[in-house]
Design brief:
- There is one protein chain.
- This protein has 128 residues and is mostly helical.
- It has four helices and two strands.
- It has a two-stranded antiparallel ribbon with strand order 1-2.
Amino acid sequence: MATYGTYNTPGPIKITFYGIGILFAFLIMFYLVRGMYRDNYRGNVNAGRAAERIEARKALEQKNSALLNSAGWVNSNKAIVRLPIARAMELTVQAYQNPEAARSNLVARSEKASAPEPVAPPQPSEFE
């Protein structure tokens, strides 16, 4: 009968040192996280920057709401306009009374909008 030795198992001293090392690592991690938590939640560290971000977000929301609720030109060269959301939804409902025609129209308009702008040919060099 074969006997299996303990040639790969760590001894009790090694296990004790491993346990102390792991415990020490967890304590270091605990104190680092606790310090970060205290620094971030004192309230006055980033108060000025937070106020700037809030003002920037409010300005962006006002600009976007104005753009969403008004008509205007997106690209006048390609005759692409921006419609208010309510009007765009009405036109979509009307267009999809005939789904095949609406889809083909949508694809044609998408291709027109994504077509590259015509570029003027370069001027010939004076040395040619």
